[in-house]
Amino acid sequence: MHDLIYNHISARIPGTEEFLLNPFGLLYEEMCASSLIKWTSKANSAVGADWPAGLNYTFNLAGFVIHGAIHEAKPDIHCVIHTHSLAGMAVASLKKGVLPMTQTAMRFSRIAYHDYEGVVLEMDERRRLLENLGDCEVMLLRNHGTLAVGKTVGDGVQQHIYRLERACARSCSRSPPMTKSCCPRRR
Ligand SMILES: [Zn+2]
Description:
Oligomer: single chain
Structural class: alpha+beta
Number of strands: 8
Bound molecules: zinc ion
Radius of gyration: 16 Å
CATH topology of the domain at 60-173: L-fuculose-1-phosphate Aldolase
């Protein structure tokens, strides 16, 4: 599921408006608890690890825009995970999205979709991300990847993103393709 250093996972610190986000520049297997970045949503401030000189790993701006939007707007959500898996990107680029071909696909009562607007760097996109996500547990970011939320890390990772990835893998392995692809609109 990973995409080297380009995916993000975050977890709310229980009982607070703060959340932990993985630093930009480290692989998942290189991270430890002390390397995580702590964000305070309302103050819009981040505290990172005290890295040795030359190793100033900071945050991924797209990660902050996406994860911060959800943690700030949804206090019951404790985990947000976003991937660029091959299957997730492929299905996110198909007009019909995830097909209800398998049990792992059918377990989602609804899957949200968010149209591509370019790399997610603008705070303005937060509103549209939240509108499109609604109450869904999973969302496909068109031409980009997957996203899942959970009330616990277990829900977000095991129940939602894992099953969404399996559903995407099956949908895009169908041959011949059952659905047309969609390309980003010019802006
Ligand atoms: Zn992304």
